[in-house]
Amino acid sequence: MDTVNNRPVGVFDSGVGGISVLRELYRLLPHENYVFYGDSANAPYGTRSTLEVRQLSLAVTRKLLSHQVKALVIACNTATSAAIQQIRQHYPKLPVVGLEPAVKPAVEQFPQTNIAVMATELTLREVKLQKLFERYQDQAKLIKVPAPALVEYVEKGDLNTPEVRAYLTDLLAPLGKLSSIVLGCTHFPFIKPALEQVVGTQPRIIDGGSGAARELQRVLTKADLLNPAVDQGKVTFYNSNPDPAEITLSQRLFQTPLD
């Protein structure tokens, strides 16, 4: 019997990186059903214009609405920055949860230290992140670290290769001592093992996936939309790239240990 409560939660990303968020959603809310849409045919979003990302995000939202989703999680920092306001305007009755780099928890845990914020170029230049930086600029030294190639590595399934580690070394070695590294792109948690090999365990690595999961739980509870089912929910993957390897990669990433 179809009810609003057992309808799926829609989750989307510019590619497969948002599966790192999907994993957190499923961990906290395992009885929910999920439809994940990766827009890998148009990845990466982070090097596109804000208008392009907005148009792509609205198109993906329409696709997910065709699956009768009861809520939407924008599992992409870039798409959140560029499009969450417009998505909420277009669909005012749809609960929408977005992502933002976990700058606040990093600063609260490590005040007056050097904190690297790794993200795509678009995320780093958008007003949303600029305001976040301004809010905490007196409480820590926040260092912007554009890392566009990491998105492409993850899209290819290269998570801990010599090339990935060399790229991370080139990015981070010049920054000196860091208290923490904020992963401001949902692709980046998948390279956490490689990152730990490069920087060791001293800088704390922080991402926003668990925060998004808690926000979805809050939003669904407030709207009385939690699924009352006791069975494990179903997760369905779609991708704009018609190559079946994309779905195989999606399933692999969903099951990949990150810790």
Automatic annotation (TrEMBL):
It comes from the Bacteria. Pathway: Cell wall biogenesis; peptidoglycan biosynthesis. Its EC number is 5.1.1.3. Substrate binds at D13, S14, Y45, G46, N77, T78, T186, H187. The active site is at C76 (proton donor/acceptor), C185 (proton donor/acceptor). It is an enzyme of class 5 (isomerase). Pfam families: Asp_Glu_race (PF01177). Keywords: Cell shape, Cell wall biogenesis/degradation, Isomerase, Peptidoglycan synthesis. It catalyses: L-glutamate = D-glutamate. GO terms for molecular function: glutamate racemase activity. GO terms for biological process: cell wall organization; peptidoglycan biosynthetic process; regulation of cell shape. Provides the (R)-glutamate required for cell wall biosynthesis. Belongs to the aspartate/glutamate racemases family. This is Glutamate racemase. It comes from Liquorilactobacillus vini DSM 20605. The gene is murI.
